[in-house]
Amino acid sequence: MEYVRFQPHDGVHWIHADAYAAVVLTPSAAPKVFCLGNAQKLEAEPVVAYRRGCGPQPRHFPSAAKTLRRRLREPAWAAAYAAFWKPIESSLGSATRVYVAADGILNQVPMGLFTDPSGKLLLEKYDLRAVNSTKDLLRPRRSAGAGKTAWCWATRPSI
Q1: Is 96 among the domain residues?
Q2: What is the pLDDT at residue 56?
Q3: Most buried by CB count within 10 Å: which residue of 82, 151, 156, 158?
Q4: Residue 147: per-residue pLDDT
Q5: DSSP string over 1-63
Q6: Are 84 and 111 in contact (CB under 8 A)?
Q7: Pick from 57, 45, 68: which is nearest to 121 by CA?
Q8: Using CA atoms, how far apart are residues 42 and 9, in angstroms rounded to an integer?
Q9: 3-class DSSP state for residue 142?
Q10: Three-state secondary-structure class, residue 99
Q11: Confidence at residue 153, expressed as pLDDT on a 0 to 100 scale
Q12: What is the pLDDT at residue 150?
């Protein structure tokens, strides 16, 4: 799936309000394109929810976990789900692993934290994989092979 933020053109003039579209590619069907709507309206609630969710957390872990879980159930996350995920979800069929190429604000907002109407997180329903572009899926996979490892050298403090 690839999200695209773009400036629409009506055939004569550029429209000054950006929009979002999503393209869903599956191995068994033709690509499906979904127009999601005005970018400024779609971006408003997810950004507010994300910033609120990243705000000050309690220092005690159980309290922090409860606070985060409560914040993830806020209506703004459900609104983000309704705006960006619900229109395309039925086209995913029985897929459980979804490769997502995000654009615009979706590069800054964790889509896995969007909640469906039942309160379930997307990351609980799908194995979401971020890619730069759907073109990345066409590149042949390369294995690291034997002897190809990365090393990190660090100095040890003197005792």
Answers
A1: yes
A2: 58
A3: 82
A4: 58
A5: -EEEEE--B-SSSB-SS-EEEEEEEETTEEEEEEEEEEHHHHHHHHHHHHHHHTS---SSHHH
A6: yes
A7: 68
A8: 19
A9: coil
A10: strand
A11: 52
A12: 57
Residue whose pair of structure tokens reads 């990351």 in the numeric block: 123
Assess if residue 149 is contained within a domain. no
Segments forming the whole domain that contains residue 74: 2-137
Q: What is the mean pLDDT of residues 67-96?
A: 81
Q: How far apart are CA 148 and CA 159, in angstroms?
A: 33
Tell me the CA distances in angstroms from 24 to 51, 109, 141, one per residue in order: 28, 20, 22
Question: Residue 110: what pLDDT?
Answer: 82
In the numeric block, which tokens belong to residue 1? 């799936």
- Against a cut of 0.70, is the pTM above it? yes
Give how many domains the chain has, as a whole number: 1
CA angle 100–104–109, rounded 5-degree value = 65
Report whether 25 contacts 31 (CB < 8 A).
yes
CA distance 130 to 51: 21
CA distances 130 to 81, 88, 103, 153, Å, are 17, 17, 11, 29
